[in-house]
Amino acid sequence: MAITTLSSRELNQDIGRAKKAALQGPVVITDRGRPAYVLLTFAQYQRLTGQQRSLAEALAMPGLSDIPLEPPRVGISSRIPDLS
């Protein structure tokens, strides 16, 4: 696991570089030469905090029922194939 260090200025100038580096390991972001933040991929964050959720747990999250969801009805009809 590689640890990359970037200044806040470098991060602002090239966020793509920071995102690519985060795929290899943590990215330490400095502010005035001192470590201030750490950029991780979401998967790394979940492993670190032990917050792996199942689909059922994610769907049961509070507030999810407040999201309106009315999928359109799909009409399925059978047709007689023309075999002539």
UniProtKB/TrEMBL annotation:
Protein family according to the UniProt entry: Belongs to the phD/YefM antitoxin family.
Pfam families for this protein: PhdYeFM_antitox
Function: Antitoxin component of a type II toxin-antitoxin (TA) system.
InterPro entries from the UniProt entry: Antitoxin_Phd/YefM, YefM-like_sf
Protein name per Swiss-Prot or TrEMBL: Antitoxin
